[in-house]
Amino acid sequence: MIGLLxxxxxxxxxxxxxxxxxGILLVVLLVYGILRQRRVGAKLSKELLELEKARQNNIEYExxxxxxxxxxxxxxxxxxxxxxxxxxxDGKDSYVSSPDTPIDSMWDFLDPSDCQxxxxxxxxxxxxxxDSYHQVYRVKVGNTxxxxxxxxxxxxxxxxxxxxxxxxxxxxxxxxxxxxxxxISARNKAEESxxxxxxxxxxMGHEIRTPLNAxxxxxxxxxxxxxxxxxxxxxxxxxxxxxxxxxxIDGLVSMSKIEAEAxxxxxxxxxxxxxxxxxxxxxxxxxxxxxxxxxxxxxxxELYMYTDVTKLTEAVDHLMQNAVKFTQKGSITLGFDLVKxxxxxxFVRDTGKGIAKEDQERIFERxxxxxxYIPGTGLGLSVAKAHVQSLHGTMGVESTLGEGSTFWMExxxx
Length: 414
Hints:
By secondary structure, the chain is of the alpha+beta class. It has eight helices and 13 strands.
């Protein structure tokens, strides 16, 4: 530049202003180029930062979808097409539409009882009559049925305000539905337990008062009765009612000890044949031996088990008491068989009234009485089952209404 100015000055002085103008313009252009480059660089840096932020947001968005196990889908109301964009739901049997799947073909996968409700709600948002959508429904894929919950909203509209795009999410809620069902079942059981306890307390008043009144009444008569035969009869009545009262109290005490876990196992090697024979003989004294007899089924002369004698005796005794109470004629058989090689099945088979199918599960629950007209506390079978479970065994019943019942307990021999 300086050279050009010196040359122009020496050759032609009129060119000097021209060169100065050109020089100034070049400097201005250079400064403008530098400033523009800096602005472009700043804009590029900002765009790169936004891109990085968007990438990070996409990573976080995808992480959230994975963590919540959600599927994202999109629908085109005008073309009436649907497709899943991402799917992080559990279960390979979840329904996923193919790209550009007709919306009307999706109704076939919904449970018929949910289909109409879901269809109306989805049509409302696709037509713009509603801004949001939320439905819980069942989906059937092949032979599999699962619960699903979906949310949707309008993501784009045309100039007239009509929806052009609807975006939604779906989530499998099988575990939630199971939890809800379990909570409802637990609530119902709690309510039923409360009702049974109320009935139990009312029944206890009657059960305890009946033998107690008999004991007190007959005891008051003893001093004024002169006949030796009558006195002996009164004494027998008092003893019988004492026995009944003792059974009731013993049942309550056994249940309270089970509740408090006060009974520890006292295990020993025991021959159960004489034990069971003793129980059968005791109950044979409670029946007339003609219309109702007590029989035994002992295939072995001796059978040793490693068990708690007290708990086993109480459990079998409760089953025998229950059989005597509900059997008016025929027979009651106490016996055992070997099963699975190392287990023994002890059973009490009667020819009594039997138990309806719907009552066979709940009969082992506390305070449950199938026949309110038969005396009892509703604790015997529940106490027996608790004892059997503490001995690592199982208990059940097989019964036909009007034909009799077989209560059994299966216990390990060692």
